Description:
By secondary structure, this protein is α/β, with parallel strands linked by helices. Helix content is 14%, strand content 34%. A hairpin with a 2-residue loop joins strand 7 and strand 8 (125-131).
Amino acid sequence: xxxxxxxxVESLPFNENTYIVFLDSRPDCLVIDPGMEPELxxxxxxxxxxxxxxxxxxxxxxxxxxxxxxMKKAFPGVPLxxxxxxxxxxxxxxxxxxxxxxxPITSPPADRLLSEGEILELxxxxxxxxxxxxxxxxxxxxxxxxxxxxxxxx
Length: 154
């Protein structure tokens, strides 16, 4: 069985983590929560020789969506996905809290909206979508039921 590989890119100034997740046997990957230093993410993808199958956002706060535009520009056909109750944060700096910091960030709109209980099959990886409102009203996590299980929570 293929081992799940996880590479983390920490973006400043909020120390936000972006996850690059893939299986050894495949050339594609998932990019989860591209942060405020997308050039670091793009460099790692190039070093790993991986191409995203999807860009996933756990929630719409600015530090977790700031790299979406660069990812979509570098990989225009790759779908951007976020929870159905977070979609408006992508395009509204007040809602995603970046307007409060005087650095309004927006993202391209989502290509697909995700709901509780959905199962995603992307890059050979099966993830379950679980809603966990609190940190953000429509926050979701991605659960991989492997051994050991992993939760990508943002």
